[in-house]
Amino acid sequence: MRKIDIFDTTLRDGEQSAGINLNTQEKLEIARQLEKYGVSIIEAGFPASSPGDFEAVKQIAGTVKNSIVTGLARSVKSDIETSWEALKGGVQPHLHTFIATSPIHMQYKLNKTPEQVIEIAVESVKLARKYFPLVQWSAEDATRSDRDFLVRIMNEVIKAGATTINIPDTVGYASPIEYGSLFRYLSENVRGIEKVKLSAHCHDDLGLATANTLAAIENGATQIEGTINGIGERAGNVALEEIAVALHIRCDYYQSESGIVLKETKRTSQLVSKLTGVVIQPNKAIVGKNAFAHESGIHQDGMLKNPETYEIITPDLIGDVATELVLGKHSGRHAFFDRAKQMGFQLSDEKLNAAFVAFKKLADRKKEITEEDLFVLLTDQQVQTSEAEVYELESVQVQYGTSNIPTATVQAKTPSGEVEVVSSTGAGSVEAIFNTLEKLVNGKVHIIDYRVSSVSKGRDALGEAVINLSFNDVISTGRNASQDVLEASAKAYLNAINRQIVKAHYQEQREAVAQ
Amino acid sequence: MRKIDIFDTTLRDGEQSAGINLNTQEKLEIARQLEKYGVSIIEAGFPASSPGDFEAVKQIAGTVKNSIVTGLARSVKSDIETSWEALKGGVQPHLHTFIATSPIHMQYKLNKTPEQVIEIAVESVKLARKYFPLVQWSAEDATRSDRDFLVRIMNEVIKAGATTINIPDTVGYASPIEYGSLFRYLSENVRGIEKVKLSAHCHDDLGLATANTLAAIENGATQIEGTINGIGERAGNVALEEIAVALHIRCDYYQSESGIVLKETKRTSQLVSKLTGVVIQPNKAIVGKNAFAHESGIHQDGMLKNPETYEIITPDLIGDVATELVLGKHSGRHAFFDRAKQMGFQLSDEKLNAAFVAFKKLADRKKEITEEDLFVLLTDQQVQTSEAEVYELESVQVQYGTSNIPTATVQAKTPSGEVEVVSSTGAGSVEAIFNTLEKLVNGKVHIIDYRVSSVSKGRDALGEAVINLSFNDVISTGRNASQDVLEASAKAYLNAINRQIVKAHYQEQREAVAQ
């Protein structure tokens, strides 16, 4: 069996997609889960792009031990040096640098000749190798590049010291046969290609990311890049869980193994969906809610006679085990702590205590506390930050009637520590809350997207609200899970605002240090 | 350019997936849109499976003129004859019959020898051809069947009169190279294959449905089957919109055309998502909300210099045009009717008037009425049925406060025509409503799934609620779009209950006729 390295870019190519804004704690939590999931490399961010990215990459490089941690850098001296500062604390510092190689990108975006592009690529790889033992070089828009130009530039960057060469299908344009044949051609024509890792990176614009990635593996790729749930720019990157399961289920055909811990699939997928706020459609392969649901009579009849008639993947394989009733109103601190540990959470005593308080409050109102509820509760504690003073909702009340004017009242603590009570009306209950909160936060708020969904089954299930809004023209996404839809909506709104406050606070601190 | 026929099975393989229950009006509306979208064949249902399916297939066959309408039948005399009754009114009656051909299905599910299976297949195709000019025969689980057995049985069913042969990858197991090579093998070895249509039917369990379908086209398929948004059993069928766009964008490579009206893509996708309640994830290829969103600084810079640097598909191509403010409070009846016509709706005068009343009510509360709002409003009118007396919500009021006990009061008309007022409490606002409604409907209700999302942008956007529940152990899904989240939740709950009442009423009527 060949070993295929899995390179996860959920925190870089995934995080840069529309509507996603993860804070450092959330990124760390995802990185820890990716390490458990068994990915070879974690691309933790683009350190030179913002102080927040820099800090997250630095913390992840300092925390993760069993996966290599990398960051993205343009072919620019300052990007590479900033990345070194962020990544040098890692076990095996790794840099990912790139330049575009397609005629359209070189001409319009870079405004450089092919010769100049080769020169820049070589210089940046040489510089990167002064710092990093591992350097990956990517030919952006490779699938629309001239093959022989790719051979030339790769010959040079390998000579300059690149340890991995990546061939992205940046715009999701290739067919599986074309993409496979490009890997075959490069494998046969680039000097020294056998000494480096050869990597595939696919986008799903035409729905072909999974097939293209597998075609690359069939034709010489030894590393593949993608994201959890296939999030990313536009239609997203290839979904890593699809590749991992395909290599497992069809190992007869691909003769390759990924090293992925398949039992962690569902957990990893749920965590990324929860923290990014990106929903997974029910018919999504592997991790969709219906991926294992057999509905038609004919299928159900077959499944009863022999499950293999219609089931090639079992829920058990990916760790999708039935949610059991785990704890209730009378469960004590010890049982709660035990369960958290069993679920793989490593929280500080302080956070565990805070989670226990939240649990008791929930248990007073909700009959059965499921594993899903605990997951939400514990994750929320884990990713909580107290980097700055923010808005805190103390209470919300709403009067709603179809033929009345909906009215909301909110009591909240402001960042300056005062407790304010505000109220307002709206055309609906949630609009009344949003109008009230806009008074509180004292800025121009525009709601871009809003949704609420139940976390588990039952009428008393937790409701998770996700709100994408702009606050004084800056866009952010907030989320909250509470037992009430209206409370969750109010808290998600403030969460979106608070993220901007924390970010601004952080930016100010950094500028103060720089002076 | 080769012509590839598009066979849509949204209403059969799609509708049989978990949590979907479309009524006849909704199915008709989807069929009409599929006809506009330019699909060659619409599989409207499985007539022998239920009276509801029979009726829907019959009405669709009598309505649709520009697409062939078909229905599914097992290899059973009664299935085929029932299907004829449902389909005979169509312009070109077409039947789709099937039997399993893989060793595991023949042994465990059918408990038949391969020889018996051939015999049954031949008999059913012969019987079907007595009625139908067009008969498609499918080898269920073809990709796990013996190739030479497939050749043998296909030789026989073609001799028996089948006009299309379909090779489904029922469990989503094949790789693109395997699936393509199976098509090549059958094309070269089955007698008379050149006289019939050869069809592909792929499932997405490993994320390969799109690639497998395109591989079939590259290797001789002249028809491909799939669903809108890729809905269907488990991980679903291939998404037809991905195939149509891939054939268009890569016509240089595939040299094929589908006849699909690409500008109707977004509308078709939205309609199916709305009526089935199946969400589309933002990173879904072609029809996801972010499919054309460019977020990273590097991409945005490139797009400004030349859009082709990062964009291979334009939103315009698939009819995803920016929503403009179309109507407001002061718009009159004439402007409203005009707009409805422009949007392609063909409503009766009565339904147009009802839609106008709903529009005026909405315009009183909501500043800007967008095309998305109109789409929701008009579709809701179009698919409304008055087949039976049902519950009608007259008003709902809710008292909610974080530290109080949430209380809801509902006034509604029951199926017997009485107006009832009920109230109840709950741990949250929505739970209070659900508890109140459970008193009203007087049965055991369990909530399986619940979600609300905003239809368009802005704090006063319509909220669309979807509820999947069981009522006295029967499962159904209800939906409603209203300006208030609580109202939408209450109406969606009653909509789910009402669907069961309509269905039961229909069943009773049918039984009365049969006696």
Description:
Two copies of one chain form a homodimer. With 515 residues, chain A is an alpha/beta fold. Chain A folds into four domains: 2-276, Alpha-Beta Barrel (TIM Barrel); 291-319, no CATH class; 333-382, no CATH class; 392-514, Alpha-isopropylmalate synthase LeuA, regulatory domain (Double Stranded RNA Binding Domain, 2-Layer Sandwich), CATH 3.30.160.270. Helices cover 43% and strands 20% of the residues of chain A. Chain A contains 18 helices and 18 strands. In chain A, strands 2-3-4-5-6-7-8-9 form an eight-stranded parallel barrel, surrounded by eight helices. A three-stranded antiparallel sheet of chain A has the order 13-14-15. In chain A, helix 3 (51-63) crosses helix 4 (77-87) and helix 17 packs parallel to helix 18. The mean pLDDT of chain A is 93. The interface between A and B is large, with 122 and 122 residues.
Q: Structural class, from helix and strand content of chain A?
A: alpha/beta
Oligomer: homodimer
Shape call of chain A: globular
Rg of chain A to the nearest angstrom?
25 Å
Biggest interface between chains = A-B, 122 and 122 residues
Distance between the termini of chain A: 55 Å
CATH class call of the largest domain in chain A: Alpha Beta
Under CATH, the homologous superfamily of the largest domain in chain A reads Aldolase class I
Q: What is the helix fraction of residues of chain A, given as a range?
A: 40-55%
**Unreliable residue runs of chain A:** none
Give a quick account of the main beta sheet of chain A: strands, pairing sense, barrel closure: 8 strands, parallel, barrel
Number of domains of chain A: 4
Order the strands across the largest sheet of chain A as they lie in space.
Answer: 2-3-4-5-6-7-8-9
